[in-house]
User: Fold these one by one.
Assistant:
Number 1:
Amino acid sequence: MMNAHASFSTTDFAPAMRQRQWAESARQFVRCRRVIDDTSDVRTFVFSAASGHMFSFSAGQYLVLHLTIDGTRVTRSYSVSSPPTRPLDLQITVKRVKGGLVSNWLHENLRPGHDIEIEGPVGRFNFDDLPSEKPLFLSGGSGITPVMSMLRALTDRASGHDIRFIHCARTANDIAFRSELEALAARFSNVDVSFICSQEGSAWQGPMGRIDGPMLLRLAPDLHQRTSYVCGPEPFMQTVRACVAEIGIAPSQYHEESFGGAVGNSMPPQSAAAGPTCVRFARSGVEHLCAPGETLLDAARNSGLYIPTACQQGICGTCRTVKLSGDVVIDDLGGLSLEEKAAGYVLACCSRPQGTVCLDL
């Protein structure tokens, strides 16, 4: 009898392989096929391409959702939780956040048969660009989604990677994918899974408290030999950064993705330019006089111009734009490489003009 995880033969998969492949990074519509309740406040939404194409992406990348909520266009980024080894569907796993506009709308309104517009997948936090034979996947809360995609991709391929997976949650009932993770650890001898709960639960006997250096070394004693892939809310990320710095992990062995921090104008008011500022869009022939504190992204939107964007925190690099002239103040979180900076790129979401700035847009 074939078990549930048996591999498809080339013949079995031939009809799917004949489908045209999905155009990466293009804006297009996908159709919700299924909604899965993972925990009391976490749901997975399963999509297929409305065009019928197969999906092509790298494990760890994210989507940008373009939605209209109460008549207002809204964009949000969500990591893909499914692996690229299953190209006929695409999944995002969304935690309902108190007061969260998009997460609540998705939970309350998105149902099978509904179409939504997406862009991507995009993102440099992915296992193809950042490979390792000994990965440590470390996540907190909803940050589990991109590293879950990476783990699923590796186990789908029955890879020989030495994998350690550590997830931090509030209680045992808040651990998304718990049964699947435990099953993968039981099935694959090269996969070790640990959970940490910050609050006591009636049936939880595992590690308790918030992650720190000693706990991290207990769960991953060979940490110095591993490459860490980390994702979670910003307070969790700050704690992990402090831990790995104290332990002495080389920067080349540490990669992170972070969503959910402050969005928009987070620069203190005194950092804004003292005099009038203006943004000229060279190819569009548009000139925009900026209000105090406006970013280049704000200026483009207020001029009716489109710059693709995702995290809006200077992390992902989606909104990178070539600055032809002028000065900006950048409040980024590492979204540009040194090569991109040297080539004249700036991040529109977190760059504020000083005087007159000209963009190649």
Note: The two ends are 59 Å apart (CA to CA).
Number 2:
Amino acid sequence: MIDLWFLVIAFLWTGYFVLEGFDFGVGMLAPFVGGDDDEQRQSLQTIGPVWDGNEVWLITAVGAMFAAFPAWYAGLLSSFYLPVVLVLAGLIVRGVGLEWRGKVANPAWCDLGIVAGSALPAFLWGAVFADLLLDGVLPALLGGTFTLALSLLHGAVFLALRTEGRVRRRARVAALATGAVVLPLAVVALSTLASVSGAATVPALAAMAVLAAAVALIWRRREGWAFTATAAAIALTSVAVFVRLKEAPLPGLTLTEAASAPYTLTVLTWIGLITLPFVLAYQAWTYWVFRKRVALPR
């Protein structure tokens, strides 16, 4: 049961990073790929139906940690109290900006909130997990910069995949430019991760996925495959992190020591078997319904 719930939590965090990754990227890029207000709304409409559902993955991941591994939950949140509070503040500000943007006369403050509220979590999650693995300011800065840049690339590819016209063209340019930054960062960050991970092959595959997205697929205008590659890069990076955390989720703490009682894990398993398929099916249906490209508002 302990290994099963660790895999569930790793899956939930990975899903959150992949799905919120393009949310963060779109939020940061929308003012820059949109030449006017209509084009900016076109960009934000690509995440409008899904961004709040994507945040549910974070709530579920943290809730599962609290229930299945309370010592891990308590230690992680207390050790990184300030970054976690800043992440929550960023998510709140971003949510307010997205909801209010179309309801105020001057949306400039909403735009600033969306950009800042997207950039802050994208950077801080990478910094938190890098510091958890490597324990230092420089690794944290490297991890945060890498996840921020990778989110920008992921969001740019998503915009190129989901929009039409000038926004799509600008998104492709942004993806190419961001890819040039992400590639060297990926080499350094993922090499560092490979040095402490028990599965060095996984970071190498993540770096190859970044290369595929930034060079081959985007250049050939294959946005669908490019998005698959950036999603794979994020997922593989997350897998490498959790492979390392399985040995010790916190310094001096094993999974067995962090876990709840067997009865609690059994009850959680039955609850998860009943509810999780419905949640996944509903979110898959949402993405299917809103799968078409977004055109300029009329």
Note: Residues 96 and 110 are 8 Å apart (CA to CA).
Number 3:
Amino acid sequence: MALLFSSPSEMLSHGFDTVIDVRSPAEFAEDHVPGAINLPVLDNEERARVGTIYKQQSPFLARKIGAALVFRNASAHIEGPLAHHDGGWRPLIYCWRGGQRSGSFTWMLQQIGWRAEVVEGGYRSWRRLVTRALYDESLPFRFLQLGGYTGTAKTALLPRLAARGVQVIDLEGLARHRGSLLGGMPGGQPAQKGFETQLVQQLDALDPARPVLVEAESSKIGQLLIPPSIWEGMKTAQWIEVGAPLEARAAYLDAAYDDILSDGARLKAQLTPLRYHRGHALIDSWEAMIDAGERLALCRSLAADHYDPAYEKSMSAMTPDVLERFETPALDDAALEALADRIAARIQTISM
């Protein structure tokens, strides 16, 4: 009998020994149920081949060829990565929509004697639960936004605050992007669906009776959209703002953006679009600093002449409710630890 879950929390606490995603590696890479392993019964090429036969030749022929491939691949999984499991093993299986791929594999595991079950509706059931939580319903959390000029080490503060018991969601960490013009990170960003699955997983672990801190962002982080339920909570959130001297911020940016600052050609290409917003003279001066290896001077100018005006314009448009502003003279490890102590102590005084 297929299992139907009614909420992300219920599916995340499924109680099975292993969750197996039998979809193709490409499907799995885009998104999957947290903690699932990928044992495809059709790989990327096989899935494409069967789909083409189904559309262009015959559904019956596609099912016949697909069945042979599914059982061949399932046999390899049983002899390989699943061979060590004993008779009490309880796996939960899903494919795209709970159809032939997961049904066939689950039947085979059950014939061996394993207590396998299949997810009704497959991955699409999980996706519907995620969409409902992030797009259709309001969240039961009070958000706080951590704001401040670019280079005030907000991202570096988040894990320090989490270590002090503050509930934190690191949106930029999940999005694998630093949330600015030069924010791209090696490896690129996850798919939107994968980003949303990570968000749901983190939200499920939070206590609604305590505030949740997020870094102040626009509605997009790189190419990824912040889902509506989180964005609505952020728009009405109070702010905690961090301030630091320009020199300290420049030094922090020099270290935090080392990857892009070390690649002059890439850096110039990413700054080029700003010619139409900041003028040719400023961008020419940045390119001269890049050629001369003057990284601190470049970071200082990027902050003062680009990021700060953009932040001030955004703040004047939003007029956020700033709960408290915290100044720090430096942004080295010792200063950030002391700053985290102060912010955490303030957050702990907030009543729901």
Note: The mean pLDDT is 94.
